[in-house]
Amino acid sequence: MKRALFLTLLLANLGFFAWYRWYLLPSEASPTLAPALSGESLKLTSELTPSERKALAAKAAPPPATVVTPVPATVLVPATSTSATLATAEACATYGPFADTDMVQQAEMRLKQLGLQTLEHTVPGKTKPGYWVYLPPFGSVKEADAAADLLKKRGVGDIYVVTDEANHNAISLGVFNQHDFALQRVKELKKLGYHPQVTERFRDEPHYWLDARGPATSLPQADLLKDLGEEGAPVGRGIGTCLPAAG
């Protein structure tokens, strides 16, 4: 009897334990809570404003495709020698003024020896032949002639009465190519009681120039022709007019 009661209690305890373990405990476990939703509440598309629909469509649009522009192939141009380019490039220069046609011919010969083309041209100008010593114009031709006769009687030569319009009735006492010679003449006449004047004398005469054309490195400096210039006007070099290319 006691044995049966013991078995009954044991079975009852085992049954209670099994019930408690497999049925009661799972139901009492704390459920895992989902994270709280944030943001605005859900809306239907029909409930959106036009601006909200436009923003939603922009978010949903796929990103623009990237356009790849092909890079053209680099064309390599062989570099040319700067010195070679300068040596073959043609240039033009003009030289002058020259004293006369003989000087021009000498200059032309020197330039042609350098392989240059040349062309002579003239420019209107004036030439200073020297320094003029004279007595200023007298009041009349009669007075000028009387003064000239008196000078001759006193041994003064190389004189004459000027008849041109600019210096009418003046007495010329000589033209000298150097200023010192002119001053010496003035000194001699002052001893005789006269007061002559000195001025530079000019006359119309063309100036001679040479245009030259050829490789830039062949055009010489003006020093090559410096001995062919006019007195007081050395030969210079300037930018010249290019001559037509030889055919």
Description:
The protein is rod-shaped. By secondary structure, the chain is of the alpha+beta class. 34% of the residues lie in helices and 22% in strands.
Oligomer: single chain
Q: How is the main sheet built?
A: 4 strands, antiparallel
* Uncertain residue ranges: none
Radius of gyration using CA atoms only: 59 Å
CATH architecture of the domain at 127-203: 2-Layer Sandwich
CATH fold-level topology of the domain at 127-203? Alpha-Beta Plaits
CATH class categorisation of the domain at 127-203: Alpha Beta
List the total number of helices: 6
SSE order, as H and E? HHHEHEEHEEHEEE
Helix amount, in percent? 25-40%
Judging from the principal axes of the Cα atoms, what is the shape? rod-shaped
Strand order of the main beta sheet, please?
Answer: 2-7-1-8
> What's the mean pLDDT score?
78
Q: TL;DR of this structure?
A:
The protein has 247 residues and is of the alpha+beta class. 34% of the residues lie in helices and 22% in strands.
Task: Produce the secondary structure layout.
Blueprint: H1 2-28, H2 50-60, H3 82-88, E1 90-98, H4 101-112, E2 117-123, E3 126-135, H5 141-153, E4 160-161, E5 171-176, H6 179-191, E6 197-204, E7 207-215, E8 236-239
Antiparallel strand pairs: 1-7, 1-8, 2-7, 3-5, 3-6, 4-5
